[in-house]
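Dear support,

I submitted the protein below through the web form. The confirmation email said the job was done, but the results page showed an empty box. After a refresh the structure appeared. I'm attaching both so you can tell me whether what I see now is the final result or a partial one.
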Amino acid sequence: MKKYSYYGISILVILIDQISKIIVRTSIAPNQTIKVTDKFFWLTNVQNPGVAFSFLSGESFLIKYLLVFISIVAIIILSYLILKSTPKLEKIVFALILGGAAGNLIDRIIFGKVTDLIWVDFPDFIMQRWPVFNLADSSIVIAVILILIHTIFFANKNAEV
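What the results page shows now:
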């Protein structure tokens, strides 16, 4: 793949994320939940002014602009890393994170909050329900999982012990 083609992954993530958020905002009332399955998978419309798990979710003017600023800096750094990285996996990981960061940044700029929509259940010994998230968040998590799997199972196989 050419080095600029990795941005296509980011654009795809942004498009899928934004389309899913538009569908949820226009078809599900705020804080309403639709149980797709009885217990495991629900769709909801939650507006999150903070970051992951509603951390820093205050309505503070400073927090909102700080989150936008941090997102812009992250996007600039990730864009640079996509161009300068050599391994394809790194480029894919950076592209997935870039798409997720940009998808959530669009919400922050337009609405001042991020639309979260996916709500899944885990066995009760972990937690009652997983916090609500969106496809941009999922893209970032998938990228982290990919790099962790690569690091744990494939990196440094030839290194001396």
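Response: this is the final, complete result; the empty box was a page-load delay. Helices lie at 6-27, 61-84, 88-111, 135-154.
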